[in-house]
Amino acid sequence: MAVRRDWPDGTHEFVHFGPSAVDAERFVALDRAYWRRGPWRPVHGVVGISERDFDLHRRRRLCQGPDCPQVTVR
């Protein structure tokens, strides 16, 4: 499971890859606490993605690709 951060400008990034949804949700809670004080606050979601796709995506900066895994429930 991976954590996806969606930004107000329409870009997104995958920021954490873990073995379970519980691990990913724990990361989301910590990351939300970090961004809470700033003027820009991303929307977080947990998505199913392979580790290989996660690593490949980390090279894509400012991604707006429609082919990236989407969060179905927020």
Features:
74 residues; alpha+beta; 3-stranded antiparallel β-sheet; 3 strands; globular
Explain what you see.
The two termini are 15 Å apart. The protein has a 3-stranded antiparallel beta sheet with strand order 2-1-3, with helices on both faces. The protein has one domain (2-57). The longest helix is centred in the middle third of the chain and has 15 residues, at 21-35. By secondary structure, it is an alpha+beta fold. It has 2 helices and 3 strands; from the N terminus they run E-E-H-E-H. The chain is globular, with a radius of gyration of 12 Å.
What is this structure, in a nutshell?
The chain is an alpha+beta fold and 74 residues long.
Strand content: 15-25%
Helix-strand category:
alpha+beta
Q: Which strands sit side by side, in order, in the main sheet?
A: 2-1-3
Q: Output the radius of gyration.
A: 12 Å
What is the ordering of alpha helices and beta strands?
Answer: EEHEH
What percent of the residues sit in helical stretches (DSSP H or I)? 25-40%
Strand count: 3
What is the count of structural domains? 1
